[in-house]
Amino acid sequence: MTTLDKVLYTARAHTTGGRDGASRTDDGRLDVKLSSPGTSGTGTNPEQLFAAGYSACFIGALKAVGGMQKIAIPQDVAVDAEVDLGPITGGYGIAVRLTVHLPGMERAAAQALVDTAHKVCPYSNATRGNIDVTLTLA
What we know:
Elements: E1 13-16, E2 22-25, E3 31-33, H1 46-68, E4 78-88, E5 91-101, H2 107-120, H3 122-127, E6 133-137
Parallel strand pairs: 5-6
Antiparallel strand pairs: 1-2, 2-3, 4-5
Helix pairs in contact: 1-2
């Protein structure tokens, strides 16, 4: 288990109704209706929120590593995240696929950047060894 050396930030959300409810952060910046995946509900679902969070966090890790290594990150860097939900023994689990777009970067340098970002990204560290995460350089 990983323990934090220091807390830099704490996110807080209050959720009611589970997958068919609503969630709101304490600062009000996020206020969403929730719906179960594959239903006709009007809200988002936890897997979509995880995909958005992981992809945003991974871009942050790319930028952090780029800054440390004095590597210019393309302005139009993007990450496409896919989060699968499915049964596992005794319950349900998720798997993640991240496709990283670093247009204009030399492929070997871009791959090295992705590999290093995967080592420092908080979401990658939280999921490592727990779920299948596949990284692809577009």
